[in-house]
Every structure is written in structure tokens, then in C-alpha cells.
Amino acid sequence: MLYKVLKKGSYDLFLAKLIADFEFIGPVKKDKATHDFKKISDIRKLDVNYKRTTIAPAKKILYPSTETLLQYEINEDIEMSVDYEAGEKILFGIDACDVNGLNFLDRFFSDEMIDEPYFSKRRKLTVIGLDRMPSDTNFSLSLGKEYAKDGFDLFLTDLNNRYFVRVGSEKGNDILTKYADVSDAGEDDFKDYNKFMDTYRKSFKLKADINNLYDNYELIYNNKDFWNRVAKDCYSCGSCCLVCPTCFCFNVRDDMELNLKKGAKTREWDSCMIPEYGLVAGGHNFRPDKENRLKQRYRCKLKTFIDRFGTYSCVGCGRCIEACLAKINIAEDINAVKKEVSV
Amino acid sequence: MSKPKVGIFGLTGCGGCQLEILNLEDQLLDLFAAIDIVHFTEAITEHSDNYDIALIEGSVATKHDLERLEHISKIAKVIVSIGACSGIGGVNCLKNLYGVEKAKELVYGDKKEWIDAIETKPIDEYVKVDYYIRGCPPNRSEIVDVIRSLIVGKIPEIPNYPVCVECKRLGNTCMYDLGKTCMGVVSRAGCGARCPSAKSGCEACRGFIDDPNVNAQKDLLAKYNLKIEDIMGMFNLYNACKKTDRKTI
Fold first, then answer.
1. Cα-based distances in Å from B246 to A153, B60, B211, B235
2. Radius of gyration over alpha carbons of chain A, in Å?
3. What residues of A are in contact with residue B190 (Cβ under 8 Å)?
4. Are residues B40 and B128 in the same domain?
5. Chain A interface includes B168 (CB < 8 A)
């Protein structure tokens, strides 16, 4: 890894040049208290000082909520065509746990096969991360996801009068060399960076105690009373999944035109919290009860991918906590259930 | 394969659902090529009693409605309800909250005996409905989807998830974050979160999802300092006919 320093005065110019040369996506203010990742053509629209998380996670750039996978036309033969949008893009201002979210999806969408709709966009995406103080619902520190080791091209940390820049790829280095006036990081820069990281790690208000969670997970999973209590408030609305930076489940729809000649296959974000998720042909539903759906979602986040990939699939960004109208809080639930089964 | 014969009927309602079929515009020719429309209350003068599929708009609010519905149900093999009035009773059900006699008096005064109004009900209170196209007005693409599914013999995919799903897919700011009231969390989607996308809370025109957490919804609205009248108003605007839902408040 290369470590560079970008002067505060040249930061705006650096971004302005990137905005001019690339399709540039960054956080912009959306409504009263919400922000969203959007395409930016004017640097004044960029607003990195958002207190909450962005509404939708950055995965929407690589894995849109609705995406045409395939179009077909039935003549004598069936003609099929694919068109995955893939221009060079820069994603700017994404924080460490969101970078870890993308890392998880990279792994997931390349696990058994390469998901071309995802990777056609991923290959052309330059990720420039930016450290920011944790929002109230962010508990990524507890899961070890508050720091991004990789998965970015550049990662900036604001040290008041300058930016500490971690260079994560050759592409990142090329961009930095071409568009920014930087110098190598020295001893003082590292010292200040470490000081920032200390303060940052001390700023997490929400914590989940994950000690012994893995080994006792079956005990937790089978604690029916607990899941029934949490699920009592749940609307089964699916919001927690749909705002999650690592939820990958999708449904594929077949849409044909009325002439029955042309059609398309479309995938759209799905959620395991919706009753129809477990519905199969013949009408059987594997998870008709919301308590079962809820505990399954928690298991997917906290256990399943430890077994599969050696990592939590939850990055602790806190979006599900913010989005839940019933105020269901995964971090507090981890702490509560652990106390209940005394582990 | 001969084209299925379809009748499009309107009971008590504004006629907007039938209008949405006419609004299909660039798909109309394909629609006429796929089905044979033998009756269309709003668009065709001619009438035939020879149809397989009946698309019925409007709720049963008069004796005359009931007679027509019974007649249609004797002929049609498949009954499809279109719109809020037909499927859940819709705004016509507000009348029931006053009582039929009182409502007639309020609206028609001393001419009230001219009116044959009865308690408003959705059509499935009288006949078996095979499929529902929801909404006020229904989504045009869903009308096409249901008709196409019937032609190819597929079960139409009508969402049974709440509007929240569509809002999140679209990246909408939650109405509660904007200080507004919204029924989206217990209401059936399929509209593409039309109202919240225009920053207006969902009013449940497609009815409720099959298993709505209505008690939690009540808590939620109370948390945002809404009066019970506001909550009742939102519940009742389209769904006053649903006695089961009313009871939970």
C-alpha cells in the first residue's frame, strides 16, 4: 500500500477535475435529513458531511434495484440479447463499512460463477473512500468492519489541514498522479492519521457484543421466546433487507409483451422478510411466520457467512436500524439475546 | 386458439379503471388482437352476453349493481376485479360509516326515496373473484400483465408485499422522516410507490397485505402524535368495508 498526502487546498481542484472527466457519483442531500449516492456534475452538490447513512447503499450502482438481465424475441428462433450498462464511473465519499459491504458483494457475486451484470459495472468502477465519524446507528466497530483494508482504489482521511490518502490499486495511483498534487506521507502524517483513527474508534456509540456469538449461535437461534418477542413488532416490510449494503437476494420476473413475441427477464431486489420469499410452486411456504423469517435473516448476517466466507455478512452500517419503523435494532438484539441465553 | 371473449363492466365507481384500459394507447391494438372484447360499458355501445372473462370495476352500492353482478357471474367463467371499489369497496364504503339511510338523507334530502342504495360492499362479498387488479386507479402495466397471464394460462403475479419495498427500491425518503403519515408499511404494493414518490403518504388504495401488523401500525401512528381520527381516516378512506381491519383499531 502506498500512503500519500493531499493538501486541503488542492482537494477541491482534484475533485473538480474528476467530475469533469468521469461519471462521478457521490453523496448528495436528498430531503430534510437524508442523503443518497447520486451522479454529480457540480462539485457544490457534493455533501460528504452526512450524519445518518445514505438511504440506499452504494450497491445500487453495481446491482440496481431493478435490472434487465436479458431480452428476447421469438421469431423462427428465439433471439436473445444482453446489454449491461458499463461506463467508467467514480464512486466517491463512501465510508469504510460501505467499502466492506462492496467487498462482501464482490465475493458473493463471484463465488460460484461470475455475475456478469454485476461485474461488468464493478470492473469499471473506481472507488474513492472517505473516512467519516460513525452515525448513531453504526456499530461496524463491533464487527471489525469500521476499517477498510482493501476494496478501494483510494481512501481519504480528513486530517483537518490535509488528507491522508491510502492508495489501494494501480488505477488509484494513476488517477492520483494524473489529477492531484500529492506528496509521500511522512512520520507526522502517520501520527495524525493514527490519532484520527483512535478518536474515530472511540466515537462509536452503538456496540454489539459478539464474543462467543458464533459458538453459541444454535442456542441463540433456538431461543423461540426471544424471536417471538422481537417479531411481534415486525411489519415484515422488508425495508431492513432493501437498505442493506450486503443483502443480495433477488427475484427474477418474466415479462412478455401482449403480442407474446417479445419479452425480458428482469431481476429486482427481494427480501427474506416478505412472506412470499419462502413460497414455492405448489403453494408451500417454508417460512410463513415472521419470527422464523426474522431469525433467519439474523442468522444469514451473523453466522452463515462465517461458515461460507469466514466473515459476517453484516457490516454494521446501521441502515436497517434507521429504516425500521418498528425500531428493531440488530445490535441491541445481539446484546439482549446473549444475556438471555447467558453466553 | 380462439381469442378469449372478454366483457368489461362498471358498477358503482368513477369509471377511472375502465379509462385506464383505454389509456393503454400504444398497447390497445395488441390488446384487441389478443382478446375479443364483447362488452365495454365505457367504450362500446354494442352488448353481448357471450363472454368467458369478466373484468368488473366498481363496488356493489345499489340493488341494480347487485342484479348486474349476479347476471355477469352466471355467464363468466373467470371474474377479475379491477380497482379499489371492486376489490376492497374503496371510497364508496365511507357511506357505510353514516348508515345507508342517513347518507341518503344527507345527499339527496327529500328525494332520498328515489335512490335504491344499499350498504356498499366489494364484489367478492357476493361472488367468487378469481383475480384482483388492485389500486385506485390500477396500474396499467398490471392490467396488461393480468390479461396476458390469463391468455397464457399463468397465475398473475400480484404483489403481496408492502409499499415500503417499492419505496426502498426507488430510494425514496421515508414519509415518516418527512413528518408525514403513511400507510405504506401495511398496504399492498404494485403501484410503484406512486404517492410516496410524490411525497404524499400512502392511503392503502390497494388494500392491506395479507398479514398486516395493524396493531404495530397503530402504535407507530400514535408515536408520531397523530389523533385517533387521523388514523381512522387513513384506515377508512379506501378500506372502510373491511370490518376485520376496523375492529383492530
1. 56, 20, 14, 8
2. 22
3. none
4. yes
5. yes
User: For the residues B68-93, what does the mean pLDDT come to?
Assistant: 96
Task: Give phi and psi for A98, each to the nearest 5.
Answer: -70, -35
**Is the pLDDT assigned to residue B244 strictly greater than 50?**
no
Burial annotation A31-61 (CB, 10 A radius, 16+ → b, else e): eeebbbbbebeeeeebebebebbbbbbbbbb
Q: Which residue has the cell 413488532?
A: A233
How is A90-102 classified by DSSP, letter by letter?
A: EEEEE-HHHHHHH
Please give the Cα distance from A296 to A234 (Å, whole number). Answer: 14
What is the pLDDT of chain A when averaged over all its residues?
Answer: 94
Mean pLDDT, residues A249-255: 92
Structural domain for B174, as ranges: 163-247
Reported as a pLDDT band with limits 50, 70 and 90, residue B248 is very low
Q: What is the pLDDT of residues B131-141, one digit of tens each?
A: 999 999 999 98
Identify which of A118, A103, A71 has the alpha carbon closest to the alpha carbon of residue A264.
A71
What are residue B82's phi and psi, to 5 degrees? -115, 125
Quote the CA–CA distance of B21 and B8 in Å, as a whole number: 10
Name which of A29, A237, A273 to mutate to probe chain B: the one with the most chain B Cβ atoms within 10 A of its Cβ.
Answer: A237
Give the H/E segment covering residue A330.
Answer: helix A330-340
pLDDT of residue B231: 67
pLDDT at B234: 80
Counted across chains A and B, CB pairs separated by less than 8 A come out at: 105
Is 50 exceeded by the pLDDT of residue A289?
yes
Q: Where are the domains of chain A?
A: 2-63+86-202, 217-258+270-340
Edge-to-edge strand list for the sheet holding A154-158: A34-40, A23-31, A89-94, A125-130, A154-158, A162-167, A2-7, A182-184
Report pLDDT digits (tens) over A58-86.
999 999 999 999 999 999 999 999 988 77
pLDDT at A43 over 60: yes
Whether A18 and A90 have beta carbons less than 8 Å apart is answered as yes
- Chain B residues with CB inside 8 Å of A243's CB? 168
Smallest Cβ–Cβ distance between A235 and the set B30, B162, B179 belongs to B162
Q: Is residue B34 part of a domain?
A: yes
Does residue B222 fall inside a structural domain?
A: yes
The span from the first CA to the last CA of chain A, in angstroms, equals 39
Judge if ipTM > 0.90.
yes
Q: Take residue B36 and report the three cell numbers written for it.
A: 375479443
